[in-house]
Amino acid sequence: MFGDDRSTTAMTFTTSEDPKRPTVFVLEMIALLFVPSLVMGVGLAAVSGPENFLPGLALGAIVGIGAAKLRNEIRGARLGDTGE
């Protein structure tokens, strides 16, 4: 049970994988920018009222932009881009 590395192997981060195709990457970035904003905006509006849709949208945008930035850094690491 404790000597089995399969459970932790799936959770490890590696940059040795091949980067995804550009079209897949663009779709991921669009989803990361829009889905969290809409979900948090609609969720906050559903829980506390429609007047809180815009604050939820703003919070979701912050989360989405952070996730997109992280995804972009992972792609750069896999491509070997140092950002300089």
TrEMBL record:
Keywords: Membrane, Transmembrane, Transmembrane helix
Origin superkingdom: Archaea
TM stretches of this protein: 25-47, 53-70
Protein name in UniProt: Uncharacterized protein
Protein source organism: Natronoglomus mannanivorans
